[in-house]
Structure formats: structure tokens, C-alpha cells
Amino acid sequence: MDERTWERVREVVAGIPAGHVLGYGDVARHAGIRSARLVGRILAEDGADLPWHRVLRSDGTVAEHLRRRQLAELHAEGVAVGNGRVDMRRHRWEPGAERASTDGSSGCAAGSGTRG
């Protein structure tokens, strides 16, 4: 894996605003890579300074070994969690959506309409 791939994943995760989440597959797509597992590996090895808690499984569940901490961080940001699961339809971040709501442009990044 090249350094640029690593940085693209870090940039996507760093850009997730408080109160929003992405799935590992969402991060992979926005970073232009195929592997959701690679996103998990990058976050495990080099994600301590990132909002890693905003990255979830596609079904809205959190990492079991970090469950308490991750759920507490999400709750503090106003993310609703029910039965250990985040409502991905409600809290999934779409890059560019904030700009679209303020300037009238579509604000959709290429491929941002896909969900994982």
C-alpha cells in the first residue's frame, strides 16, 4: 500500500463532522480504494489522532473491543444509538452536503451517492 492511499483514508476520516458517521466501506469509496478492511487497518495503526469513533460497520454497529468508548464518544456528539446500533440513514455523512445546503449547489462528490 502506498503512502497516498494511507493519507486519503486519513483525510476522509478527518473530514467526518461531529454528529455524523461513515461505514468502513463508505470511507474506502470516498478515499478511492476497494477495501473496507484496509480502512480498519489504517485506523488501528494510525488513527489515534482522528475521529475514529465516527467510523462504523455498515449496519451501524461499533467495534466490539472499543464498544463503551466509541458509544460514549458518539453519544457526546448527539448521535442517537439504539440497541448498540447507529441509524446510518439518519447520521451518515455525505461529503459536500453541508455546502449544498448553504450555497444551493449540489455539493455531491463523485460517487458520494453510494452507501455501504
Automatic annotation (TrEMBL):
GO terms for biological process: DNA repair. It comes from Actinopolyspora xinjiangensis. Residues 7-78 form the Methylated-DNA-[protein]-cysteine S-methyltransferase DNA binding domain. InterPro entries: ATL_DNA_repair (IPR052520), MethylDNA_cys_MeTrfase_DNA-bd (IPR014048), MethylDNA_cys_MeTrfase_DNAb (IPR036217), WH-like_DNA-bd_sf (IPR036388). Coiled coil: none annotated. The keyword Membrane does not apply. Pfam families: DNA_binding_1. This is Alkylated DNA nucleotide flippase Atl1, participates in nucleotide excision repair, Ada-like DNA-binding domain. Keywords: DNA damage, DNA-binding. Residues 94-116 are annotated as: Disordered. GO terms for molecular function: catalytic activity; DNA binding.
